Amino acid sequence: MTTLSPEILAELEKQAIELPSWAFGNSGTRFRVFGTPGTPRDPYEKIADAAQVHVHTALAPTVALHIPWDLVDSFDDLRRHAEDLGVALGTVNSNTFQDEDYKFGALAHEDDRIRQKAIDHHLACIDVMHATGSRDLKIWLAEGSNYPGQNDMRSRQDRLQDSLQQIYAHLGDTQRLVLEYKFFEPSFYHTDVPDWGTSYAQVAALGERAMVCLDTGHHAPGTNIEFIVMQLLRLGKLGSFDFNSRFYADDDLIVGAADPFQLFRILAEVIRGGGLNNPDVAFMLDQCHNIESKIPGQIRSVLNVQEMTARALLIDREALATAQRANDVLAANAVLMDAFYTDVRPALAAWRSERGLPADPMAAFLSSGYLEKISAERVGGAQAGWGA
Ligand code: AOS
Ligand code: ZN
Ligand code: ZN
């Protein structure tokens, strides 16, 4: 069995992956939202389900919220509820993609009244952050256009920057704005924040507490995502990941399920760039479990990240650098592949047991009776993850 050195285990011990509240709600595609027995009926139950992932893995100490999907009467109360369950509230995600007024945009909209409404929504999210103790305000914008000529793309960028400046000015001293890019959808001809360069240009103009969010499902097929990771870390502007996996578009599938080698390469660059367990880089999942059970889906996700992180930590960096300096192409590739092909699961299972955790978190959760309990208790009124 492969052994993991004390240095590697020390790094893995610090790993923290933030779960999205919406992963526990019913979600789906534009064709159908399939329900699942026991699905949470409110944010409190979402937090309870997310806490189960942390109980069984010790990998998921925070839960990201989404406004308005997670609106409650008292965020102080929700924060205490989370703390009582051993987790904390994390990133606050805004939403300017489900209001009739935002049909033609929000923060980049030509109509100042609508743009102000979108800005005010973000200021309300910052108010939530003060109550939850959250650091990050995550902004993903669905804005853009569907046809050439529909909009003036340049003036949209200028209005977007003005809106972001107003939002940024309201952040608390320790809070951050994280701007997520996406190359298409729901706008199909142009998206106002389509790529890492645009996000970087917009946040660089704001200040040091404005960062880029990299969603692993938000790139054209074949994109070298680990190159973007390297560059953003090199520029000091990688604020967070939205981890998921995709086969064709922004599929929001279980991270590592489609391409574990890509996840390994991304994590290898994170480690190379000093991003692993760097408090400035948040590891968030952004996934929906449309047809698979949600809590097990999240357990699988965090275990996939842990496993690929362990493999990436096994890379013999000295041998790699030597081979690279010598332009020994095959030797350098072999160093990387040796680490990737190493089965670290037995070592991770043994390590979990040493720490009083279940060697097999998935089996432990499935035999805990939690799913049966919530399926019996939560009858009716399940909340859609994507906010109906
Ligand atoms: C949408 O495709 C983006 O990935 C968003 O990050 C995410 O799904 C949204 O933040 C949920 O509100
Ligand atoms: Zn995302
Ligand atoms: Zn997405």
UniProtKB/TrEMBL annotation:
Alphabetized SUPFAM superfamilies for the sequence: Xylose isomerase-like (SSF51658)
Single GO term (MF): L-rhamnose isomerase activity
Q: What EC number(s) are associated with this protein in UniProt?
A: 5.3.1.14
Alphabetical UniProt keywords = Cytoplasm, Isomerase, Manganese, Metal-binding, Rhamnose metabolism
Q: Name one Pfam family in it.
A: RhaA
Gene3D superfamilies reported for this sequence: Divalent-metal-dependent TIM barrel enzymes
The protein's name: L-rhamnose isomerase
Species, as recorded = Microbacterium capsulatum
The lineage, from the top, is: Bacteria, Bacillati, Actinomycetota, Actinomycetes, Micrococcales
Primary gene name: rhaI
